[in-house]
Amino acid sequence: MEIKTIRGKLALLTLNGDVFDFSVRAIAAYLKSRNFSVSIIHCLSAENKLSFSGDSRLSEKQLMILKKHCEGMSAVGISILTTQYFNLAKQINNYLKKELEIPIVWGGIPILCSADFFLEVADYVCMGEGEVCMEEFLQNITNETPVENTRGIAYKSKDGNIVYNNTIPLLDINSLPIPYFDPENHYFLREDIVSLKDNMDLLYHPARSKGYRIFTIKGCPYKCAYCSNNRLSAVMGTQTLRKRNIDLIINELKAAKELISGLSKVLFKEDDFFSRKENELEELASKFQKEIGLTIKMNSTPSNIKRKNLDILKKYNISTEWIVLGLQAPSVRVNKEIYRRYFKRDEFIEKIHLLADRNILTYIDTISANPYETYDDKIEAVEFYIDLSEKLKDIKDSHRLVRIANHTLLFFPGTDLYDRALKDGVINELYIDQVLLKRRVHRYITDFDLDALILAMFRISLKSKNRSYIKFMKNMPLLKFINSKIIRIIIKIVYFVYCKIVYSGKY
Predict the structure, then answer these.
(1) Cβ contact 54:84 at 8 Å
(2) Contact 113/412 with Cβ under 8 angstroms?
């Protein structure tokens, strides 16, 4: 029997409670295949819950536990999902740096967008996909050669300038190992540090309730101004969709079914499930139904919601619980000039009707609180929802089949929209500390604005089959009156009560 020599040890920290965190699992799987020892640790705030607040911190006890776990490691990696985790990452970085003489490297899409911001704290950041980068980083440590030689990292030189090493070419995702769960080396840091092996419910509960999450296509067909994908293309070179082989998808899902008894759903987390070619979708549907046979959920784009694609799923009796479509704004101008998104108004309405007619629940992603929107854009939004209500009038229970997921527009460093907003004076240099690090994109009851009211009227119109509610909003003087400060406060109170009753307090 061959004995494999461990080449180095890595503690890979992620700052969210998502046990499916794809980036760290992919890096861990790759490094393990190269004979490195890797621990994944979810570092939750002292409140033991996921938090996007800039004030989130680990307790002193948690820091001490983390330090003990990291003792003897060759390096520590900190994965940043969004910029809102910056202060928590900073606290962990500074504590471990003070207590342990271990190199620490940060990674994540926000860092690709704005390395200079994170290098104010981090010594090293990964400027691409982390698999090969971390392998070289660890290899340099074990060989006692400078980690500054690692491809794909950035760091500050002694004179304070930022050095960007050569990038690592995009990987063939079909050559990478499947990110199977490793319960013995997958941890959650709460009151104490607990492995999945000791508490498999940390995996079982989210998998059974929301579905097993799988990420099978890298890349996005869009390059929206508010999103990091356009910056990712600039850093990594031409960004094309990279699709995982169908057999690898099936193998991962078969392993998931064996590991998680009672699994009933699979959530495909790629940006566009239907970006597959027709023959690829046919092969996936055929093998999925034969060997997996679970309900699926997915994201897609309106242009790829086609009858032939839906017919393939129907042909193989694949049940679809819901599909998420990104609308963002019903205004043609806002999509084209502000967000730089492909948007055809009538096509979008047609695709929503197509899904509802097949009894498929659709979540429509929207963005509110956009300072670039005008009252004319609001009127256009009202007209869009009037036409959508009209289109759905023949659909029974359309209010249950069409739902809105509303988000607040935030400006993330490194994106084109952030740069534009800074140049236009919409935000200033204090925006990151004063706004971005203190809130999240999901909206709550207190986030009342005209968008929230328009969406509420749309919901009521759908449920009542009476479009007069949303038509009532098609009045410019009325919108301006509602948006006045005193009226906004009054309606905010009424809206709060409405949401409490109808949505159990969750917007």
Answers:
(1) yes
(2) yes
Question: Can you say whether the dihedral through the CA atoms of 320, 324, 330, 335 is positive or negative?
Answer: negative
| Structural domains present in the chain | 9-175 (3.40.50.280), 341-408+440-507 (no CATH)
Nearest to 504 by CA among 419, 436, 445, 458: 445
Single-letter residue type at 92: I
Rounded CA-CA distance 212/321 in Å is 13
One-letter identity of residue 349: I
Give the H or E element holding residue 109: helix 109-113
pLDDT digits (tens, 9 = 90+) for 402-424: 999 999 999 999 899 999 999 99
Q: Torsions phi, psi of 327, nearest 5?
A: -95, -50
CA distance 503 to 163: 50
Task: Show the DSSP H helices in 323-391 as ranges.
Answer: 332-333, 345-357, 375-391
CA dist 499 and 268 (Å) reads 30
Residue 142 host element (H or E): helix 130-142
Token output for 179: 């990110």
DSSP-based three-state secondary structure for 280: helix
Tell me the one-letter amino acid at 220: C
164-218 confidence digits (pLDDT tens): 999 898 889 999 999 999 999 999 998 899 999 999 999 999 999 999 999 999 8
- How many C-beta atoms surround the C-beta of residue 237 within 10 A? 12
Instruction: Determine the distance from the C-alpha atom of residue 136 to the mean position of all C-alpha atoms in its chain, rounded to a whole number.
Output: 27
Write out the two tokens for 189.
Answer: 């840091």
Its pTM stands at 0.92
CA atoms of 344 and 351, how far apart (whole Å)? 11
- Per-residue tokens: 229: 């994908």
∠ CA 370-372-377, rounded to 5°: 85
Residue among 150, 133, 179, 189 at smallest CA distance from 13: 189
